[in-house]
Recover the amino acids of this structure.
């Protein structure tokens, strides 16, 4: 696990009242926050690297879109050969700064191009793997299809999209159970009732989850030839989609 200060952000009264932002405070606690908030996060990161190991070809690029501090970037770096370039993109300057620091003593880090930019404006070219690990949920819903279609267009034959998202649960007993269990997971990881409810408010309209069927329909509409779901833990789910 990468070094992190403990996440106490939502125990502070002033942080709750404004919408969630990937600023310097969040970047400082992010590894602790994401580990304690996303069930299966370590598996998502590790398995994304293994997917890249299987798929990435020499002379191609792997993209880590919404890379935060580069957990997936480092996972891919460990699993791919010397002729694979990794393009790590985030539009939060504090995240990209943190990524650059964390790459300093990592072997092979010269294969990583760290870019501070909007993923909607970054060219995707010669890509064998494009990872959106918990990132699409922050892109405006109306712009999601265009982004996936552009990713599809930048993939080499045999290339894949790896998409992981918090999902909107169905409005039924199963959905209610998943939501309740996600809160139990946060409680079990030491978050207070207040912190859980404040973060929920801060994320409203910032993180917009969608139903599994909506994601799968969009993957098809974007022109991918096929997809399969390879991960689910409570209300977090991941797919691989291929050309
Ligand atoms: N339009 C955008 N352009 C660029 N970056 C963006 C955009 N929108 C959001 N981000 C960035 O996407 C990241 C989402 S976190 C990803 C975790 C990481 N993938 C991980 O495997 O640790 C997930 C979470 O916090 O739930 C943040 O760093 C944002 O700045
Ligand atoms: O905490 C949540 O409810 C999440 O969906 C995960 C998360 C993790 C880190 C930043 C924002 C959301």
């Amino acid at each position: 696990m990468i070094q992190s200060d403990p996440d106490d952000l939502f125990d502070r009264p002033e942080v709750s009242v404004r919408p969630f932002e990937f600023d310097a405070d969040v970047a400082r606690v992010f590894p602790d926050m994401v580990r304690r908030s996303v069930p299966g996060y370590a598996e998502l990161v590790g398995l994304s690297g293994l997917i890249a190991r299987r798929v990435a070809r020499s002379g191609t690029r792997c993209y880590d879109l919404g890379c935060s501090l580069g957990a997936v970037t480092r996972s891919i770096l460990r699993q791919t050969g010397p002729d694979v370039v990794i393009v790590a993109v985030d539009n939060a300057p504090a995240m990209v700064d943190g990524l650059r620091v964390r790459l300093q003593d990592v072997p092979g880090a010269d294969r990583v191009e760290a870019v501070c930019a909007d993923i909607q404006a970054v060219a995707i070219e010669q890509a064998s793997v494009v990872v959106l690990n918990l990132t699409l949920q922050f892109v405006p819903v109306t712009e999601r299809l265009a982004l996936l279609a552009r990713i599809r267009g930048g993939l080499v034959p045999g290339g894949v999209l790896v998409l992981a998202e918090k999902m909107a649960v169905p409005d039924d007993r199963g959905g209610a159970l998943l939501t309740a269990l996600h809160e139990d997971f946060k409680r079990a990881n030491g978050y207070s009732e207040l912190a859980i409810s404040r973060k929920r408010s801060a994320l409203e309209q910032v993180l917009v989850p969608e139903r599994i069927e909506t994601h799968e329909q969009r993957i098809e509409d974007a022109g991918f030839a096929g997809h399969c779901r390879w991960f689910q833990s409570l209300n977090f789910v991941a797919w691989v989609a291929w050309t």
Residues 22, 34, 45, 66-68, 71-72, 89-92, 95, 118-120, 133-135, 138-139 surround GEK (ligand 1) (CB under 6 Å). The CA atoms of residues 8 and 192 lie 10 Å apart. The chain has one domain: 1-243.
